[in-house]
Amino acid sequence: MSLDCGRKPEYPSESGGDAGAMQHQVLFVLAADQLRLGAREHVLLVFAKEDSQSDAFWWACDRAGFRCNIARTPESAVECFLDNHHEIIVIDGRHSRYFEPEAICRMIRATKHSENTVILAVVPQKLPDQEEPSVLPLLCAGFSRRFVENSSVSACYNELIQIEHGEVRCQFKLRACNSVFTALEHCQEAVEITSEDHIIQYVNPAFERMMGYYRGELIGKELTELPKSDKNRADLLDTINTCIKKGKEWQGIYFARKKSGDNIQQQVKILPVIGQGGKIRHFVAIKRANTDNNNQVFKINKEDRCSVDHTQSECHSLRHRDRRKDSIDARSVGSRGSDAPSLQNRRYSSVARIHSMTIEAPITKVINIINAAQESSPVTVAEALDRVLEILRTTELYSPQLASKEDDPHTSDLVGGLMSDGLRRLSGNEYVFSKNMSQSQLAIPVTLKDVPPSIAEMLNDEERWEFNILDLEAATHKRPLTYLGLKIFTSFGVCDFLNCSEATLRSWLQLMEANYHSSNSYHNSTHAADVLHATAYFLRKERVKSSLDQLDEVAALIAATVHDVDHPGRTNSFLCNAGSELAILYNDTAVLESHHAALAFQLTIHDSKSNIFKNIDRNQFRTLRQAIIDMVLATEMTRHFEHVSKFVNSINKPMAAIEETSMS
Asked: pLDDT band at residue 338, thresholds of 50, 70 and 90?
C-alpha cells in the first residue's frame, strides 16, 4: 500500500485492547485471507486531513488485502486515479471547507476509465432530531453509494467487502465483455445478436462482409425491415420463430438476401439466450456461407436442437428435442481447425448437402467460391468481389459495353440500347421483368399501429400538399409506398370496400413495392408513393369528391400505386427502337403502361395472401379492373393533353349546369 502524504496510521483500538477484541481481530484477518481474490482490488482514499475515519478505511483495506492509495487534494486524486485505475474510490464528504466531494466525483467520472469504478461517499452522522437526507444529489453527482461516518475498522471492512462482492464483481463481468466482443470482431463466422423483439443490436465484421451492409445500417432495425430471399419455403420463418420462442435452438439451411440483392445460401444456427426473470432476452444467430468446399459444419447436440427433418422434405417437419444442460457440443465460434470431422459431422454434412443439392452450372460454382473467399477478406477486397459477382451474374459476359457515359449520356443510352435487346438478363435467363416473384421474399408486414413514432409523425401530415415524400423515403429506408399506402387506403376505407383484411392489404402493398426497381433514380416506389399522395389529395377535394363514387376512388388509389410497377427506367420509344420483348409483346403500343397494368393484376391474383380482390363479386371486379386499366393506360404521355381536357370538361360541365340552375 502507498500513501501520497502523511504517516502510516496506527491501528485503532476498537474495544479497549482486551483479549476478546484481539481474538475478533485475528478472526477478521483470517476471514479476509479466505476472501481475497487472485487479483486484489485497488482502493483510493480521498481525505483532505488524516483522522480516525481515514485511518479506519486504511486499516480495513489492509485487512481485506486491498492495495490502497491516499490523496489529499482533488488534483492529486484525479492524477492518482489516472495512474492506477482504482476499482473503489472513497471520498470524504463530511467537511466541504476542504473540497467539494461532488466536484471531485464529477472530475473522476469525466475521465475515460471511470465507468467501471465504484465511488463511495462518506457522509456525516445525522443528529437525532434531523431528517434523513436524500441520496439523490450524491447519485446525480456520480457516486455509487454512501457510507455514514463510522470509524470502526470492522464497519469499514464490511462495507468494502460488500462492495467487492457486489458492485465490483459485476463491473468485472462488464469489463470482460470487451474481451468477448474482441473475439466476435475477429470471428470468421457471421454473428448477429437481436433482442427478444428481433431488433438488431450487434453484427460482427464477418456479417458485414457476408451481407454487404455496414453495421450502422443495421443496428436498431427490426429483422422484418430487411429484404427476404424468395428461395425459402413460405412457412420457414414461422417454423423458426416457433422453435426459438420455445427456448430451443434452430439449425438448418436458410437463404438470405444481401444488400446488393443477391441471394446467399447459409448454414444458420440460432440460439435463444435466457436472461432476467428466466425469459428469453436475446437471440444469437451464427451464420456461415454454405458452399461445396465448405466442409466445416456446426456440430449438433442430438438432444439440444430444432433442425429440419431431411427425410421428410415434402412436409418439412421439425424435430424438437429437450435441452441437455450438462454437455457442450457446439464448436467454438472462432474455430477454423483442420481436424478430421467426426462421424456425426460427416453424417450431418452429407444430409445437409442432400437437402441443399441443386443442379449447378460451372459459373454458379465460381460464384460460390468467390462468396466463400469474401468471408475472410478485408472490406476493400470484399467490396471489389461484390462488383465481380454483380458482373458474373449477368449473361452478357461477352457483350460489348461503352467505356464511359459521362460525355454524352443520351447518346450512350441510345447506342447502348442498339447494342443489346434493352433488357438486362440475370443468371438462369430470368429477365428483370420477372412475372413470378412470390411474396415470400418480402418482409413480414407491420400493422399501422406498430409504425415507428418518427414515421407515424410524418404520416400525420400526409393530407397536406406540402408533405415531403423524400423525408418519408429516408425514414422508411426506401419503403415509403407500404407505409403511406397503409395510411391512405385506411383513411379511404379501401379494406371495407374490397371486403379484405388489413393483413391482405399490407401484403399487397409490400408486393407492389418490391416490384419497383430501387435502382431507378425516378421511376421507383418513392415516385409511386408521391403519385399516390397527390391522387389522395385531389380525391379529398370537394369538387372532385362530389363527381366520383367510392369505386372510382378505390380504382384511382390502386392505379396510382401500380401505375409504374416494374418500370425498367427506359421510355416506350427506347424499348420500341431497341426491339425489346415488351415492345414486341404489346405491338409498340403503350408498351410500359400495358405492362404495368398486366403485371399488377398477375402479381395480385398469384397469391391468395395478397389478393385484395378475392372477396368482391365478379361484376364489381370487372368494373373495378377496367377502371384501373383505363387509368394506368392514361398515364401514357402521348395522350396526356387529351385526357386532361376530358377531365376538365367532366368537372366543369356539371358545375356549370348547377350554377345555371341556381341563378334561374
From this structure: very low
* Cell numbers for 355: 437437402
Which residues, listed in sequence order, are joined to residue 70 by a DSSP beta bridge?
45
Cα-only R_g, the chain: 35
Q: Can you list the alpha helix ranges (DSSP code H) found in 429-468?
A: 453-459
pTM for this entry: 0.38
Which of 42, 86, 523, 595 is catalytic? The answer is 523
Q: How many residues does the chain have?
A: 664
Q: How far apart are CA 60 and CA 88, in angstroms?
A: 13
If DSSP codes are grouped into helix, strand and coil, which group holds residue 662? Answer: helix
* First-to-last C-alpha distance (Å) of the chain: 108
Q: What is the CB neighbour count within 10 angstroms for residue 632?
A: 26
For the stretch 405-432, pLDDT in tens is 445 555 655 555 554 444 443 333 333 3
Of 651, 399, 652, 376, nearest in space to 539 by CA = 651
pLDDT of residue 434: 39
Give strand pairing partners of 318: 308
Task: Name the DSSP letter for residue 165.
Answer: I
Which phi and psi (to 5°) does residue 306 adopt? -140, 100
The Cα–Cα gap between 165 and 266 comes to 44
CA pair distance 84, 76, nearest whole angstrom: 12
Q: Where are the alpha helices (DSSP H) in 492-606?
A: 494-498, 502-514, 525-539, 542-545, 550-562, 572-578, 581-585, 591-606
Burial of 140 (0-12, 13-18, 19+ CB in 10 A): exposed
Residue type at 26?
V
Rounded distance between C-alpha atoms, residue 381 and residue 653, angstroms: 67
Give residue-wise pLDDT tens across range 555-583: 999 999 999 999 999 999 999 999 999 99
- Residue 355 is a catalytic residue: no
How would DSSP label each residue in 25-74?
HHHHHHHHHHH--SS--EEEEE-SS--HHHHHHHHHHHHHT-EEEEESSH
Q: By the 8 A CB rule, do 203 and 191 touch?
A: yes
- Region 55-67: what's the mean pLDDT? 91
pLDDT at 96 over 80: no
User: Residue 136, CB half-sphere, CA atoms under 13 Å: how many?
Assistant: 1
**Residue 157 CA from chain centroid, whole number:** 47
Question: Taking Cα atoms as reference points, which of 11, 67, 74 lies closest to residue 48?
Answer: 74
Write down the residue that cell numbers 401514357 correspond to. Answer: 636
Name the helix (H) or strand (E) containing 382: helix 379-392
